[in-house]
Design goal:
By secondary structure, the chain is of the alpha+beta class. The protein is built from 8 helices and 10 strands. The protein has 3 domains: 21-85, no CATH class; 89-199, Band 7 domain (Tetrahydropterin Synthase, Chain A); 202-257. The protein is elongated.
Length: 300
């Protein structure tokens, strides 16, 4: 039996060391698997829902996945999970707002300071993934729908109508247009906010001047109303005095005047040192009322 020919590079390697090297290969593979195992799973929280996709075949599961821990290493388990938050999301974030410009039907550029809130419908998340994509694609799709709806809503009105319409009505119209686009995809528009409507500078100056003139007119009307009220009060006072005089004039009959005359003479005569002038047909008669001391002296 002939001796086997061993390549020169393996002549210095013993059979034992070669066998040890072959054993190390699976050991290293197992070690790498254990090291990457914690990074080969996906956690879906209680405020999220996930869609599973096979990265090799491209197959997407018909059902969504709720809160749990899922093995998701594409190279090992052939699984990939895309998570979607079920909470309400706001754009811009942190309670901010975005200023967007749009043209009215009469070609007036209006600046709208707006924001919106939306959420993913959990029951439609699989269709949303198939039609739109992952959450990054969803955010871009919602933003594009918002800009389109805003331009369409502003283009339906003139500049005068927009500036004279309440902000809530414009917000409702934009929200209606966004719902028409997003509801079928599994996205719910919770609320659209219009915080400010800014016309062009020239229009804004004209509006401020008009408001100032209207305020001045209102102030003049107010002063006029005050003068009218004061005049009405004086007129009512004059009417009251006139009515009182008429009543008094009608009640002063000759008999009452004679009675009142006699009563007055009696009151004056009861006081000391008074002088009574009684008119008669031939002139005035002067009566001197004696004082109390003179009356007592005369009695002595």
């Amino acid at each position: 039996m002939s001796t086997p020919i061993i390549p020169r590079e393996f002549r210095g390697v013993s059979r034992r060391s070669f066998t040890r090297s072959l054993v190390m290969v699976p050991a290293v593979a197992v070690l790498l698997f254990l090291l990457t195992l914690p990074f080969s799973c996906t956690t879906v929280t209680d405020y999220e829902v996930a869609v599973r996709k096979n990265p090799i075949t491209g197959n997407v599961s018909d059902q969504s996945f709720g809160q749990d821990l899922y093995w998701a290493s594409p190279a090992v388990f052939w699984r990939q999970y895309f998570r979607y938050p079920t909470r309400e999301l706001q754009y811009p974030t942190a309670g901010g707002s975005e200023k967007a410009q749009a043209l009215t039907s009469d070609q007036l550029t209006i600046t709208i300071d707006a924001a919106y809130r939306y959420r993913v419908v959990p029951d439609k998340v699989v269709d949303l993934f198939l039609v739109v994509g992952d959450m990054g694609d969803v955010n871009e799709y919602v933003y594009t729908s918002y800009r389109t709806a805003l331009r369409d809503a502003i283009a339906e009105l003139t500049g005068t109508e927009i500036l004279s319409t309440e902000r809530l009505q414009i917000a409702d119209r934009v929200e209606e247009l966004m719902d028409a686009e997003l509801a079928a995809k599994g996205i719910e528009v919770v609320r659209f906010f219009v915080r400010e409507i800014q016309p062009p500078p020239a229009v804004r100056e004209a509006i401020e001047l008009k408001l100032q003139r209207e305020q001045e007119v209102q102030a003049q009307k107010f002063q006029t109303e005050i003068v009218k009220e004061q005049a009405e009060q004086k007129r009512q006072e004059a009417l009251g005095i006139r009515d009182a005089q008429n009543i008094i004039g009608q009640s002063l009959t000759p008999a009452y005047l004679s009675y009142y005359y006699m009563q007055t003479l009696q009151e004056v005569g009861n006081k000391e040192g008074n002088v009574i002038i009684a008119p008669t047909e031939g002139g005035n008669l002067l009566f001197s009322v004696p004082t109390g001391s003179r009356a007592r002296g005369g009695g002595q």
